[in-house]
Amino acid sequence: MVWHWAIPQAHAILNSGDLGANLRFHRTVHGLNQTELGNLLGYDNTYISALELRKKTLGDVGSLRRVAEQLRLPPHILGVTDPADTDHRAMVQFGQSTVRLAEIARQSAHASEARLEDGHAQREVLHLLAHARVGLGVALGNVLPEERLATAAHWTAKSLSIAAHFNDPAFRSYALRMHGNELRKAHIRGAAVGRLR
Question: Which candidate among 7, 50, 81, 143 keeps its CA 20 to 30 Å from the CA of 90?
Answer without folding.
Answer: 7
